[in-house]
Amino acid sequence: MTAVHSEPQSAGGAVSAPFFQRGELIEGDDTAHRSRDLGVTFATPKIAMDRVVHPRGEVPPLLNVPLAEIIDFLVETGERIRDPGNPFVQECVERMSATHVLPRAVLQSQVTGAAAYLDRRLLQTVVEQNFPDPRALDEWVPKQDFTGRKSFVRAFAPRLIHVLPGNSPGVAVKSIAQGALVKAVNLFKMSSSDPFTTVAILRTMADMDPGHPIVKSMTAVYWRGGDDTVERVLYRPQYFDKIVAWGGGDAINNVIKYLGPGFQLVSFDPKTSISMVGREAFASDETLDLAAELTASDVMVLNQEACVASRFIYLEADHADADRFCERLHARIAGKAAASGDARPLDLDLREQIDTLMMLDDEFRVWGRTDGKGLVVRSDEPVDFHPVNKTANVVRVDSLDQATDHVNVATQTVGFYPFDRMSDYRDRLASRGAQRIVRLGEAGPSTIGNPHDAMYPLHRFVHWMAHEDGTAPQ
Q: According to its UniProt record, which protein family does this protein belong to (predicted)?
C-alpha cells in the first residue's frame, strides 16, 4: 500500500479536507467551513462543477462490469480498510477526531468496523433480498406475459447524489458499497462532521487500482447544505436521477425544493427509536438487572448518536418499580459512558431544561447530572426535548398499550421486552408507522438484507428500464 499523506492542516491552520473526483485526489484550501457540532474550521478545495457531473451521453463506467467482479473488489477493499497500516484510514481518523463529537477511539472503531459490511456473503445477501432476479443488474432479463407479449427488463445504472450523515462514519462505507452494487455514477456530499471517511475509502480503492470502474464512478466533495450556488447547479435531472439523503430535517428540506419529474428523493429521514419494557421485568432481581442492562445497551448504541439508539423507554410499572428500574438503568448507562471515554457535557439548552425538571419532584425524577456521564429522567409523559448524549427518558405507563400512542412514522426501532410479547404488538406498531421491532438489547445489529426505513433501498436506487419486443407468434 502506497503511504501517501496530504498535509493535515492548511496554511491557515484549518484541518485540511481534500476531495476525490473519479480517481483523482483534489487538494486545496480555497474555502473555509465550520464543523456542525464542534465549530472547528476545516478547509476544502473549490468544487469543479464540470468534474463532479458525469455526462448523460457517456455510459456509466460500471454498467457492463459483472456484479461478481464488483463484489470481489469491495471485499478486497474491506480487507484494506481493516489493515492497521492503511495510511488513508489513519489520516482520516486523525483529522475527523478534530471535527467530530465522538472520541477518537470510537471513531477508529467505527471506521474499521464498518468494513464488516464488505463481506462477500453479506453483499450477496443484500443483492438477493433487494432484487427478485439479480441478473437484472448484469443483463437485460427476458420476460413474456400471459398474452404472449415479450420484453426485456434491466435494473439500469442510476446517477445518484448521496447526502451523507455526520453521526456515523460507517454510513460512508455502506453507501459506497451500495452505489457500486447498483453500478451507479455516485456523487457523495460529505457532512461537516465527517468530510474525511468517504475520501479515505475511495483513496484506498484507488491505491488498489486507480483505473477500476468503481473508482471512476465515485466522487466525494463537501459544500454547506443549502448552498444554492452549488445545489441549484447539481440538483437537476439532466445530471442525476435521485438524491439519497440521510440526515436531519434541514438536510431533507434543502433537497425537497429541487424535486420534480425525473429527479426523485430516496430519504432516510431523521428517526427516533424507543424501548418497550413490560411488567415481566420485575419478576425477580435477576430479570430486572437483565432488562436494565439490555435497555442500556440500546441507549448507548454509538454513544446514542445512532438513529437506532433508544431515547424513550416506555416502562409498564408503578412509580416505585419504575424508580427501581431507573436506578439500575442509570448505573449501567454511566458504566458504559465511562468505558467509552466520551464525557461531553450536555449542551446549554438541554442542561437548562433538565435542571428545571429537577425542581418538579411530583412529575419527574432525575438520576445523574448533566455532565455527559449518563442521565435518566423518569416521567409519566415523554419529555418535550430530544434525549441525546447518553440521556434516557423512562416513561412510566400502566400498560404497554399506552406506549403505542406515542409511536409514529418517525419511530424507527422498537426494542421490546419480554420477547414472547413481541408478536402481540408488531401489527399495532406497524400500523402506527414504526419500521422495526427487535428484542431489547439488539437495536444495533440487524438481519442482513432486511428493509431499511420501511423499504428495500437498492431496488429504489436503480433506473428500471423496459425494452418491449412485440408479441410472440402463436
A: Belongs to the LuxC family.
Q: Which pTM value belongs to this model? A: 0.85
Task: Please list, residue by residue across 167-198, b when 16 or more beta carbons sit within 10 angstroms of its beta carbon and e when fewer do.
Answer: bbbbbbbbbbbbbbbbbbbbbbbbbbbbbbbb
pLDDT tens, residue by residue, 147-205: 999 999 999 999 999 999 876 778 899 999 999 999 999 999 998 888 999 999 999 99
Q: Return the domain boundaries, the chain.
A: 15-270, 272-439
Q: HSE on the CB side for 15, CA within 13 Å? A: 24
Which CATH number is 272-439 given?
3.40.309.10
